[in-house]
């Protein structure tokens, strides 16, 4: 279980609080108006954003002050964070160890992940020689080799066309299910939330609200969400 206990952050005149838990294995969308604090919420959990008060607990351990790398978290951002001078295998290998000195077992793990995302034959290509969807798959393979129980996605597929985005969402969903990982995904598209999540956190008016069933929330949106959905 991931618990955000009276967690609060302040950045200039922006204030956000969160006080809820997520069950392990849950798939959760994070929706809300632009600037409401969705990325900030993920940053608080991942340790990139300094919190002012409250605690973050995972499986009962207090990780509030742990460095990002020491948290049980793998995070995927919109731009995929691939290194242009490294090939596909190396980009994925970075998820195993930053110095890229991989043991035979670790190399096998990297190739296993590439195979799982359908990129085995692209192992020696540089990112520039891949399509947008293939680049997203590389980034996903890197998430896979990290073996973290909590996967945070910050609009990772926003730049892809609708069909490819749907395909990538389904792949993420399958991978999370296979690994028993807990998934949190920021999106601007309610259809993404409906497609792969069971529950949704609404971030609005300075509060990240506790999760509610995605369909219930989207079928009967509260005013803040209604205004945003239009
Ligand atoms: N380092 C910072 N210092 C001060 N304010 C910041 C900082 N980073 C973000 N903010 C502010 O915090 C608020 C929340 O930003 P955040 O990026 O979390 O929103 P969001 O809901 O993810 O937005 P979007 O949907 O547009 O990506 C915004 O008002 C933003 O301007």
From TrEMBL:
Pfam families in alphabetical order: ABC_tran (PF00005)
Domain ABC transporter: start-end pairs: 2-230
Cited Gene3D superfamilies: P-loop containing nucleotide triphosphate hydrolases (3.40.50.300)
Annotated SMART domains: AAA (SM00382)
Keywords: ATP-binding, Cell inner membrane, Cell membrane, Membrane, Nucleotide-binding, Translocase, Transport
Source species, domain of life: Bacteria
Signal sequence, renumbered to the chain: none
A GO MF label: ATP hydrolysis activity
Record InterPro entries: AAA+_ATPase (IPR003593), ABC_SmlMolc_Importer (IPR050093), ABC_transporter-like_ATP-bd (IPR003439), ABC_transporter-like_CS (IPR017871), P-loop_NTPase (IPR027417)
PROSITE patterns tied to this protein: ABC_TRANSPORTER_1, ABC_TRANSPORTER_2
Name of the protein: ATP-binding cassette domain-containing protein
Protein's organism: Shimia litoralis
